[in-house]
Amino acid sequence: DAKTTQPPSMDCAEGRAANLPCNHSTISGNEYVYWYRQIHSQGPQYIIHGLKNNETNEMVSLIITEDRKSSTLILPHATLRDTAVYYCIVSPAGGTSYGKLTFGQGTILTVHP
Amino acid sequence: GAVVSQHPSRVICKSGTSVKIECRSLDFQATTMFWYRQFPKQSLMLMATSNEGSKATYEQGVEKDKFLINHASLTLSTLTVTSAHPEDSSFYICSAGSGGVSTDTQYFGPGTRLTVL
Known about the structure:
heterodimer, B: globular
């Protein structure tokens, strides 16, 4: 499975946009980009995923570069409750590894007042 | 989104005892469930993949005789930590996926904190 690289930590002021980058330069054609977050002592929470088009939901936007080698998760108006570890994961859509998620160290996002 | 529950949320046991953790998908049928373990200040590590009605597939280094997994129905998987020791103390998290021909989104349970004395 392709590996991802994320900055270990980022800070953001409450109400401002948080842009979380992720590099996945070895991503293959059948791999999706998933984003999860984990608030302290809880299970990970699914945020969004995409293949090659940009995606948006009520919470975030996911921007995937045209060559698919990197992506950015955007929280348009961060709140204190968005403080968490954010994981960017690439996962194949089929084969024996179908559905397996390999978690890296993620990015610790701290939103401060 | 889909809801996955785990029970118990926290358990403390004596060394040598066995502990069973349940993982349930509440509003969807999960053809595949995954079990992860997370030590303090570390990331999640996949332990095993279980498919309903078949044997679980364990990741390298995970003892299948120590971590017994049963996926008896499309909404329930159990993880039994047999003869638990203090080094098994960890945060155990399950996830469930609904499967399908296109991308499968996994939903995670809230986790079970196991402390072995």
